[in-house]
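User: Hey, my collaborator sent me this sequence without any context and asked if I could get a structure. I don't really work with proteins. Can you help?
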Amino acid sequence: MVRTPGCAPKGGATGRRRLQRARARIFTSTPDNIMLAFVRFMLLMALPLSLVACTTMDERVEHQIERLAANDIGSQEWEDAVDRLIGLGRPAARQLIAHLNPGHYKGRYYREHRAEQEKIRTGAARALGYIRPRGGPGALRERIGPAYTEHERIACIWAIGQSGFNQDAYDALLVQLEDEDPSIRLHTAIAIAKMDLDDGQEEIVAAVMGEEESQARIALQGLEESGFYTVPLLVRLASEPGPRQAQLEEVVDRVTSRLQEQLNADDSFYRQRSARALGVIGDPAVVDDLLSLLDDNNNLVRFNAAAALASMDHQRGIQYLFAALDNEDPILRVNAVRFLTEVQERGAAVESALIEALSDPSPLARAGAARVLGQARVDAAVDQLVTATRDTSADVRRNAVIALGMIGSPAGVDRIRELDTDPDGTVAYYAGWALAQLERH
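Assistant: No problem. I've predicted the 3D structure and written it out in structure-token form, which is a compact way to encode the shape of the chain:
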């Protein structure tokens, strides 16, 4: 009997019986068995497709790697290859991280010329800075030392900064702040600034105020890239006399526009920090944008917007914060104290309102105002705080005596000693603490 490959036998009793049994199995199968068979079939079909997709991604990455190796760093072709790697996103990260490792360039990936490795490693680091994979900082921090070229080191330092704070990466960057190369120190300072830390700010200031144009250009670009993280430093530099005032003002304008756009970001973190930074910049043109955030669905966004408005002496922002200070919700009160303290420390915009609040009918408002005045160390409020230590509310007395201890003025020492025998044990305890603080002063 002739058989067709892959088909059932033709003709004969045996063939008919096999066919009948097969039909019986099909028509008597349970739904669970049918579903199991279907799932197995789909898995078998998907496996080759996933392998093809993986192979295709590998090939696409390696194609761009070859372009990096074949073109000079910074050339149009090289930059285009970096852009295409960025476009591939996280699926390309594994291969890009591998190309950072010197041991990778052996066997199949052997590269005879060190210059090719430099071009690949620099481009891979640049792409990783945009992709920001979780494992990126660990691999990048190993390539920022003097064993690597300046191009490689700067690209890896920049990519670490783009990735946000990572303790091990931060520790590695601190070492580079001591490097002999001023360019490495400057790039390192900018990367640390993007982690929301101040280490190395003097490097940025020196570059902006110095005579070396190339260093100044790097610093200005870094200040612009860093966005809300370096706004306080940027505003300070722009307000001081120096050789690059016009350039700094242009950077402030561009950063302001970018921050305004980020007020509409999906991520509440960007809305929070952008609102706060705009308050530091203090441009009246952004007031309406900040007012709209007082109705944001995120609590911290609303507080940051209110604090920004209060810093600009806008009554809506001040009223929002003081209303929260008198709220029954302890979380809102804590936030009100935090943000009012920040506003007061930045420019005393709410000082008179805080002192007036010590006489507010609400004990919550009186206690909160005393707490803010103490944390902001407002010397002008000492007499009113001494008066507040006689308040009928123990909570107000406690916050007032703590404030006096934090301010450190000897003016209230006699009254603080009297509170040693306060009927409320907590007030008496903090009176002793305040006296200890005054002795240190």
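In plain terms: Confidence is low (pLDDT under 50) at residues 1-12, 22-29. You can pass these tokens on to your collaborator as they are.
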